[in-house]
């Protein structure tokens, strides 16, 4: 009997062990997405730049910020932005598990050895930039030994792999935008940057020029992720990211975001940017106090009002158009009468009246138009009239396109000059091309003024001026748009 009991006991132990083993093989480790859901926060690594993520007066913004925010909302997750000094640090954060995902990362073969990239969702030319008045380089070979890049970039990886004959220096303390600043000031001969970043910075540095593009080389941008940390590869978050990015391409959301952040950056050109810089030095200080006062009174950004004023009159209080609109804000007689402006040449009255007229347009826009598009719609109405903007919206609706997006309205405004569309409108012909360009220019001026004032040291606002200075209009050669501030 004892032997039988021992045998039964052994069988029980074997059975228990087998069940435990079976249960152990059935219980799998939670997927990465499930782990993040339990944690409650998606950790997102990025760099602080004009093309990815930055803080403005209204809080966090940027192309990549909007993209990842929409993704997190789709998954029902909170997210945390981890801002790092460069993309190498972003890759380190992903590889170490400190971040779940890296956004706005330039793809290179060398980097593929460390992280997994989604299929690229953006592609841009790479441009060699130099300073005007210097000898224009024609080839990379012309720059061998003089080219400076940030450390650990995809461009540097490409040069090492494909152009070992080109000697270049890396600056571990500088990002691409800082290097472009130094090129514009004459401290460096040249650098290489994404074409979008070049276009945005040319507004601030009118002496920055493009020498040439890197032929057949494009900077591809993707999101980067790691495996699950134990040698396996968890696809849950990765697959969701790919599906989301493909969806944003298909439904037009990616195009809308690109237009919102980059669609206006080439509006000024070199001549327009240089002239704007000149007038900032010569005229803005005369009227800044009035712009600030009106902005405070009506809860607006004074730099937006200043941008409107520059587009309208180049801040010339005596400006008169062929159609007799006049003053800094170029008010018509009817608009001036509605705003109780008795003297359109009076800068204080003109700016105050222009601010109130813009507010009127802003408030009249349909509630379903969200910011920032609402502001661009109101600017178009300021230029071409509310009725014509509504006509353009109706034309969009007739074509099945969303009438509440600026990227669509910008397409539709020029239709107001075309006979086949005019018959479908209530208010008839309008110079729609001009209105579309008008908004684009103001967006560019506003961005420049925002950049300038964010770099200005703390100081008292300028006093309200009565008359424009009679001094000369020429300014000393400067590498960047400047104002009277040690920041420049």
From TrEMBL:
Signal peptide range in chain numbering: none
Positions of region (Disordered): 458-488
Enzyme class label: lyase
CDD domains documented for this protein: MLTF-like, PBP2_YfhD_N
Biased composition (Polar residues): 479-488
Origin species: Salinisphaera dokdonensis CL-ES53
Annotated compartments: Cell outer membrane
UniProtKB keywords: Cell outer membrane, Cell wall biogenesis/degradation, Lyase, Membrane, Signal
Active site: 312
PANTHER family for this protein: MEMBRANE-BOUND LYTIC MUREIN TRANSGLYCOSYLASE F
NCBIfam families: PRK10859.1
UniProt domain comment: The N-terminal domain does not have lytic activity and probably modulates enzymatic activity. The C-terminal domain is the catalytic active domain.
Annotated family: Belongs to the bacterial solute-binding protein 3 family.
Keyword Plastid set for record: no
The keyword RNA-binding is assigned to this record: no
Protein name stated in the entry: Membrane-bound lytic murein transglycosylase F
InterPro entries: Lysozyme-like_dom_sf (IPR023346), MltF (IPR023703), Solute-binding_3/MltF_N (IPR001638), Transglycosylase_SLT_dom_1 (IPR008258)
Function in brief: Murein-degrading enzyme that degrades murein glycan strands and insoluble, high-molecular weight murein sacculi, with the concomitant formation of a 1,6-anhydromuramoyl product. Lytic transglycosylases (LTs) play an integral role in the metabolism of the peptidoglycan (PG) sacculus. Their lytic action creates space within the PG sacculus to allow for its expansion as well as for the insertion of various structures such as secretion systems and flagella.
């Amino acid at each position: 009997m004892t032997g039988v009991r021992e045998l039964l006991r052994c069988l029980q132990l074997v059975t228990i062990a087998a069940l435990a083993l079976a249960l152990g093989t059935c219980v799998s480790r939670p997927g990465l997405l499930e782990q993040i859901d339990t944690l409650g926060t998606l950790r997102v690594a990025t760099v602080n730049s004009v093309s990815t993520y930055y803080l403005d007066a209204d809080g966090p913004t940027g192309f990549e910020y909007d993209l990842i925010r929409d993704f997190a909302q789709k998954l029902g997750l909170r997210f945390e932005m981890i801002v790092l000094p460069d993309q190498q640090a972003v890759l380190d954060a992903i590889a170490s598990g400190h971040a779940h995902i890296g956004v706005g990362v330039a793809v290179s073969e060398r980097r593929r050895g460390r992280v997994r990239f989604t299929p690229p969702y953006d592609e841009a030319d790479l441009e060699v930039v130099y300073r005007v008045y210097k000898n224009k380089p024609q080839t990379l070979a012309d720059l061998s030994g003089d080219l400076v890049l940030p450390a650990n970039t995809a461009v540097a990886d490409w040069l090492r792999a494909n152009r070992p004959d080109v000697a270049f220096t890396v600056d571990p303390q500088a990002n691409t935008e800082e290097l472009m600043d130094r090129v514009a000031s004459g401290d460096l001969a040249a650098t290489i940057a994404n074409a979008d970043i070049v276009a945005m910075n040319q507004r601030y540095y009118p002496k920055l020029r493009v020498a040439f593009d890197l032929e057949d080389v494009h900077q591809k941008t993707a999101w980067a992720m790691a495996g699950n940390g134990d040698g396996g590869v968890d696809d849950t978050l990765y697959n969701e990211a790919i599906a989301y990015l493909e969806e944003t391409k298909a439904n037009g959301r990616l195009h809308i975001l690109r237009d919102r952040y980059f669609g206006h950056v080439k509006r000024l050109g070199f001549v327009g940017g240089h002239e704007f810089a000149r007038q900032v030095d010569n005229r803005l200080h005369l009227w800044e106090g009035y712009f600030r006062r009106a902005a405070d009174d009506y809860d607006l950004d004074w730099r937006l009002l200043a941008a409107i004023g520059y587009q309208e009159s180049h801040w010339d209080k005596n400006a008169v158009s062929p159609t007799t609109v006049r003053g800094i804000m170029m008010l018509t007689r009817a608009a001036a009468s509605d705003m109780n402006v008795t003297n359109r040449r009076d800068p204080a009255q003109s700016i105050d009246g222009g601010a109130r007229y813009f507010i009127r347009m802003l408030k009249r826009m349909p509630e379903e138009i969200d910011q920032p598009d609402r502001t661009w719609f109101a600017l178009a109405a300021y230029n071409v009239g509310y009725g014509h903007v509504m006509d353009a919206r109706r034309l969009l609706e007739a074509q099945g396109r969303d009438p509440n997006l600026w990227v669509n309205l910008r397409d539709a405004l020029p239709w107001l000059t075309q006979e086949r569309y005019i018959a479908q409108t209530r208010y008839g012909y309008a110079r729609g091309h001009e209105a579309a360009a008008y908004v684009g220019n103001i967006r560019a001026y506003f961005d420049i003024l925002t950049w300038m004032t964010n770099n200005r040291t703390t100081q008292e606002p300028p006093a309200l001026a009565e008359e424009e200075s009679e001094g000369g209009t020429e300014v000393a050669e400067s590498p960047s748009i400047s104002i009277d501030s040690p920041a420049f």
